[in-house]
Input
Amino acid sequence: MDRRNFSKKVIAAGIAIPALNSSTFSQSISESIDKEDIKKLPARDFDVIIAGGGTAGVVAAIAAARNGAKTALIEGKGYVGGTVVEGGTALHSFFNLWRAFPGVEKRQVVRGIPQDIIDRLLLIGGTTGHTEVTNRYDYDSACTAIDTELYKLVVFEMLAEAGVNIFTNTLVAGASKKGSAIEGIITQSRMGREFFRAKCFVDSTAYGDLSAYAGAEFIELNDHPVCNSMGIANVNIEKLYTYLTKNNALGELAFGLRDGKDGQIIRFGSESGYTIHDKLPKEFVDGIVKLGSGLITTTVHDNYLMFIKVNYKLPVSPTNRDEVAKAELIIRQNQFRTLELFKKYLPGCENAFIARTSPSLNIRRGRTITCDYDIPLEDIIGGRHFDDDIMAYGFHDSAPKYQVKNGGTYGVPYKALRVKNIDNLLAAGMLITSDFQAHMSTRNTVCCMGQGQATGTAAALCAAKKIGTRDLAYIDLRRSLEKDNVYFES
Ligand SMILES: Cc1cc2nc3c(=O)[nH]c(=O)nc-3n(C[C@H](O)[C@H](O)[C@H](O)COP(=O)(O)OP(=O)(O)OC[C@H]3O[C@@H](n4cnc5c(N)ncnc54)[C@H](O)[C@@H]3O)c2cc1C
Output
């Protein structure tokens, strides 16, 4: 049976596809790069290169530059921000799950650069701020929603202010190694191919492109649907809210800053733990379920549903360009059908239209890169901390089924961010953690941002000291992170 048919059968049976160890695939990419005459390419030199300017990458680049490194950020799109401005509803989570555990102290457990971003957004009306969830707070006790477009602007400005050399519309297209270290990366843009050298690298491409090009070990689990998340405008939020409430079909709920006014609905919907409410008309629910659409959203504007997700399960890994191309069309058709259902069945949405879509489909994970440590679920729900913690984190996307013990936190260890067998490569974002349920925690935006700050800081320190990532003394990393307002619980 070929892999595609095998995958289809496995998915149909509801079984996670066994890991595809793609060492053959990564080898073939590396080989083709080795054949290029790299010496002929225009070359640039940096201390630190951050590959991918998304959720984790922008924070990594700001951290590296603020710590004195001559930093380059390579981003394939024309803007920075990544999935945080394309995929999900709210930034999960700057806080521990205190409301689900009476008596537990409310703690902001992620601070540092991620909080700097929120502070900047607050100044221009680009976030609801950190608000308390009033319904289903056993899932997340706090809600932090953002304006996707202002987020792109703010992080772009922060990168520029930090002195990061920003290369947008530039793809990481290959890597060249000397022994077990990366010497440089090959990029592709309208200026052609170039060679970017650096002392230390961070892979924050979400799909682990740089690691794969550098021959790192990885697996492709294909255990999530892909998604394109759209913004729907011209909606009467209060009318929709009243309808859902009257029909006893309200799921999560939070109030906060909306268009400059406090105490407004900023998170609501008709979903509970990824299940659409059965109190809504059957034809509507059946249609929405068939389309793979979501009914939970956030907003920072009076007439806008910021994120409505439309999911689609690919038969193969989302690194398969040909299958992704088909899915891009199917998802756009399903977004339109979802809008039609909203207009027909949901009061307040009669005149709605699609105001924003993501430029390409999103994925909850592509490649998972093998690092020196792979965080298991037990570490997370057990609230384990390490002697090389780089941050504390307390959110789990499968709560209340899986929660961090006693509303506390676990630590992400530095060793979980060091790409195995490569001396000068760190990984940050959704590309770490192989266990499905452990990843349901580490992949969330605020955890990715915290990993970004740690990897950017570590890369700057390694570059300054001219050492590999495994030679960095933890105490030096810890001191730098503490200086930059990272919060620790051990
Ligand atoms: C549909 C969906 C809903 C979600 N909902 C939520 C939610 O509600 N709350 C939450 O906290 N989390 C949510 N998540 C999870 C979270 O958004 C992601 O896991 C997280 O944002 C990933 O961050 P990252 O930095 O790893 O990747 P990204 O933010 O995707 O950044 C990767 C960046 O690298 C760039 N890139 C990729 N390859 C290359 C290359 N070869 N060369 C140059 N640039 C490249 C990309 O353009 C992108 O900018 C959701 C995810 C999805 C997909």
Notes: The longest helix spans residues 321-345.
